[in-house]
Amino acid sequence: MKIMKGWLDVTGPSTKKIAGLRTWIARGETALRAPTRKLRGSTR
Asked: pTM of the entire structure?
């Protein structure tokens, strides 16, 4: 599987149960709501 730059591949045991998926979804939602900041060395 090819993972796109800037994407996170969420697989493995933590995604086998609903609670694990909810954890990853919550992390993603938190990241989306966080203020955007330029990473060191980033060209964007």
From this structure: 0.53
